[in-house]
Write a structure and sequence with these properties.
- With 182 residues, the chain is an alpha/beta fold.
- The protein has six helices and six strands, in the order αββααβαβαββα.
- The chain has helices spanning 2-35, 75-80, 86-92, 112-120, 135-139, 169-181; strands at residues 47-49, 63-69, 98-105, 127-130, 150-153, 159-162.
- A six-stranded mixed β-sheet has the order 1-4-3-2-5-6.
- It is globular and about 40 Å long.
- The termini are far apart.
Amino acid sequence: MKTRWSFLIIVCLFVFFSCNCKKDKQIEDDVKQFMSSIVLVPKDKMLYFGGLGHRSVHESGKYSMVVFTDSAACSTCTLNNLYIWEPLLDSLRNYKKYRETIFIMSPSKKDLPHVKKVLSGCNFDYSIYLDTCHAFEKINDIPNNSMLHTFIIDNKDSVVLVGNPLNNKKIRSLLFDYLEKR
């Protein structure tokens, strides 16, 4: 009986770790593919919201961070958590190589009226674009994995860093190293 349970546990562990390895490999492949792409931000096709967003732009800066929220994500959750970004974004203002942060939200049709209402009264200091016609997704090959929906582009629209610096200390460190050394 013990050997059956031991065998079952070993099989379960093998399946678990092989699934994680496949998932990690897929993420790695997605990042590599995304890092070799160009991402255009069609600001003229989206609705602009953002209290004092213009203050956060260094016109001569080389790098911009894009934070994309697609229709599969909880738009209300995203809006309620914008304040979490402020300390990081405030520190990025100190780097002349850093141009701006662009939040792009593409809510579902049912969430759209609520999102517009909340954004109209929003006191967030950074650029928020509401992509009601999904223009951003149509012209770019954005990975499905939401972990890859935060990324840095250079002034030639090339993706140079992928990952969320709020959720990953390694990405945060890479971001600041990138801004200091490049």
